[in-house]
Here is the input.
Amino acid sequence: MPIYDFECSCGNKDVDVYDSPVETERICPVCKTGMRRLLPLIHISPDLEPYLDENLDSLPVYVSSRRQLRDELKKRRLVQIG
Ligand SMILES: [Zn+2]
Here is the structure.
């Protein structure tokens, strides 16, 4: 499960909480109102390092970004697993 931070309008914060990706309501233990879930920062990652992909096609394909990899997969009607 992803880790989230929660913030309340009273200033109380609850950090590093394991929670379902489907947003659930979290009640602030201080003021008993609903807390706001902040976007998980751990899902932000840098673009991939350029590499030669030998599994995409009969000839190796030079892949230099995630967007390009997505496009190359789409062109070949392939789906990335894992
Ligand atoms: Zn509160």
Remarks:
- The two ends are 16 Å apart (CA to CA).
- The chain has a mean pLDDT of 87.
